[in-house]
Amino acid sequence: xxxxxxxxxxxxxxxxxxxxxxxxxxxxxxxxxxxxxxxxxxxxxxxxxxxxxxxxxxxxxxxxxxxxxxxxxxxxxxxxxxxxxxxxxxxxxxxxxxxxxxxxxxxxxxxxxxxxxxxxxxxxxxxxxxxxxxxxxxxxxxxxxxxxxxxxxxxxxxxxxxxxxxxxxxxxxxxxxxxxxxxxxxxxxxxxxxxxxxxxxxxxxxxxxxxxxxxxxxxxxxxxxxxxxxxxxxxxxxxxxxxxxxxxxxxxxxxxxxxxxxxxxxxxxxxxxxxxxxxxxxxxxxxxxxxxxxxxxxxxxxxxxxxxxxxxxxxxxxxxxxxxxxxxxxxxxxxx
Length: 336
What we know:
Blueprint: H1 2-19, E1 23-28, E2 35-36, E3 41-51, E4 58-65, E5 75-79, E6 82-83, E7 87-94, E8 103-111, E9 116-118, E10 122-126, E11 132-142, E12 145-147, E13 151-161, E14 168-171, E15 174-177, E16 180-187, E17 195-199, E18 210-217, E19 222-228, H2 239-253, H3 258-277, E20 284-289, E21 298-307, E22 326-332
Parallel strand pairs: 2-10, 12-22
Antiparallel strand pairs: 1-3, 3-7, 4-6, 4-8, 5-7, 8-9, 8-10, 11-13, 13-18, 14-15, 16-21, 17-18, 19-20, 21-22
Helix pairs in contact: 2-3
């Protein structure tokens, strides 16, 4: 019985010593984001705490693994690499464009003077991504307000994402490629809204951004001809003072004097000028027609979009997470 009592007391002392041993704790938050595209990064916040007055340093490392064969496995780094609890650190996982698109597990290890702790494996997924493109407004239309029948111009830019290149197809026996641009929606809804055109209308995209000029036209009056209003006879009085001046010169100078000739030439010059001025007494008025109608006065919002030969639509046009590429134009009453 004595040996049994002695063993029990020894075990109790050992347990008591272990319960009071100084140590540290290690916790890591889930990686955010928990899924990235190849070339993306993700991070996790690490928290290191103390137990029973632990005062040593802890070295931090992290490892990435996968159950599948991978290429260019993501790299993990912790900053700072050594801490004195209580403290915090950050683990960052970096991928490359060649990283295999599978799920990965990341474990974080803390090594102290006498103990080592490892976190529960954290998950990170590298997603397969589809090359796509966005359409954005590089410069708004100018002018931003026009009378009906006039137009404005702006610039649109197509931005490739993930190495996007527009497909090529044979159309009418000729190779065709590019992103076809259009105004997918126009608000408010009216009978004769503004219309869009682009130059070039379907620019090819080969991994680099390209631009196109947007023209917004409106419907309004069209000048058909200029009508000349009749001249009035009130202008005929203009030569008579000149004739009187000519007669006065003749009386004052006698027969065929030099002064008479001078007065006569002066009168003739003034009369000729008066005759040339007579047409100015008439005026013209333009006649117009509106065969296509008139765009109503309003401020219009036009959403620009693009679609390629495979039916891929500009991703930001239909996205709920980003603003649609739009231009606005105010249409006022026609001037004619």
